[in-house]
Amino acid sequence: MQVNHATDYGFSADEIYSVSDFLALTKSTIENNIPTCWLKGEISNFSRPASGHWYFSLKDERGQVRCAMFRMNQRAMKFVPENGMEVLIQAIPTLYEQRGDFQLIARQIEPMGAGNLQAAFEQLKAKLQKEGLFDIQHKKPLPKEIKAIGVISSSNGAVIRDIIKVLNKRYPFAEVLLFDCVVQGEGSAEKLSQAIYAADKSNHCDILILARGGGSLEDLWAFNEEVLARAVFASNTPIISAIGHETDTTISDFVADMRAPTPSAAAMMATPDRLELLAKLDKLHSHLLRCTQKNLNDCQQHLEKLGLNTVGFGRQLNMFSQRLDELNKRLNSHFKATFTLKQSQLNTLSEQLKQYSPMVSIRHKKELNQRAKAQLNNTMQRQIAQQRLNVTALNQQLKKSMDSLIEQQKYQLGKHSVGLNHLSPLKILTRGYSISMSGDNQLLQSTTKVKIGDTIITKLTDGKLYSKVDKIEQD
Question: What are the coiled-coil residue ranges (predicted)?
Fold first, then answer.
């Protein structure tokens, strides 16, 4: 005999909970009655174990609460929280049943006083500055002689057209190589980094221009990614950063060897002016003529002095003087001819450069892109057809499995039906037994349930008998 002591304390056994049942009830009550809410406070006890989840406490001057942010919810985060940071948290209240701890499951974290992207920008800027990536000692000087310029940008934007336009006017002698890549969106930072690596390893470019048009902080975010900043720093080729407008500042600007306010300004910064070179050449030519004439005059004067001081050598000096005049004329003639030849060669090279316009290369790249697009489309069509065949085969296998499972279930149902039939009280009636019920179809289990004169129903295997009670005997 089991003795129930619960009644000794004034409550029944049904009111007693196990610890796990009580915690489950508490968790359900919290989650169903406290909605998702925003909280503000200071982060403390922040930890990031190998699982990638974040665990920390959110506190103010009067209390604190444990919080957790799972790795799946961190995908939209651009910064990592730190101890002492004031934040806003969107969280779901819940109970961790294994320890019985009340906690908040964070779904979104925003820094107080700054946006998510701005906080990530400042955080990465401080980190890279501490590592020395912004130090002036790491800046590479721009080369004085430019033969090839690598432009890392999109072929669809106005940036490359502006750069080519400036170079055609200012310095048409340099070869322009476009490393086409996306400059915005998911994965663009990695693609820009790959383009920098390819341009640097080609050893064909004297200088690189990393360029993009203006936009919002979100549009320019690829140039604030750590992977791109480290690619810029690792490049052996000098890089000019020309991102957005003059007021826009990115992490790449701090790491690059030089920053230009616009892509057009980067093209001017990377090359000398053709007119300035020609003016310098004219100046050097004039200076050379003056120096040559001065030397000739000095020699002539010196010869004249020798002629005055030397007796008997007058005729020989006159011959030397005449020879010197002839050499002077030949030198001037040779210099003019050389200058004219070089000027002609320069004009010829200028015309040839115009023929080798980057537009031909761009047109060729577009044709290659169209071919690659067609090949990709054909590959996709083949993959879709193959997947459709796979789906058809799997559908047939599923149908066969379902038919087999239905047959098994029918067999099991038949077995259970036979078992239930053996246990049915109606089966017992076939052996001579009967069931008695009152007039309102209630099963009669005792003589106390009927009175003399009541009508009772007797259920037999092949029908029912309706009788009236004349006498009642009790055992």
Answer: 362-397
Residue 217's closest CA among 77, 81, 120? 120
Phi and psi for 194 in degrees, rounded to 5?
A: -65, -35
Distance CA 177, CA 356 (A): 12
More confident residue, 350 or 49: 49
Strand partners, 95: 102
Helix, strand, coil content of the chain in percent (nearest 5): 50, 20, 30
Domain containing 330 equals 275-355
Closest CA to 79 of 258, 224, 265: 224
- The vertex-196 CA angle with 190 and 197, nearest 5°, equals 90
Cβ-Cβ contacts under 8 Å for 246 (sequence gap 6 or more):
261, 262
Domain boundary residue, one of 81, 113, 145 = 113
Torsional class of 154: left (φ above 0), alpha (ψ -120 to 50), beta (otherwise): beta
Q: What is the pTM of this model?
A: 0.41
Instruction: Quickly tell me which residue has 């008998």 as its tokens.
Output: 465
- With vertex at residue 402, the alpha carbon angle to CA 398 and CA 405, rounded to the nearest 5 degrees, is 135
Mean of pLDDT over the chain: 81
How many CB atoms are located within 10 Å of the residue 238 CB?
19
Residue 324 in tokens = 């010197």
DSSP codes of every residue in 449-468:
G--TT-EEEEEETTEEEEEE
- 281 and 268 both lie in a single domain: no
Q: What average pLDDT does this structure show over 114-131?
A: 75
306 lies in a domain? yes
Q: How far apart are CA 245 and CA 233, in angstroms?
A: 22
pLDDT in tens, 230-277: 998 988 899 998 887 766 778 888 888 888 888 888 888 888 766 666
The pair of structure tokens assigned to 83 is 């101890």
Which residue(s) pair with 437 in the sheet?
Answer: 443, 457
Show the tokens assigned to 224.
């604030």
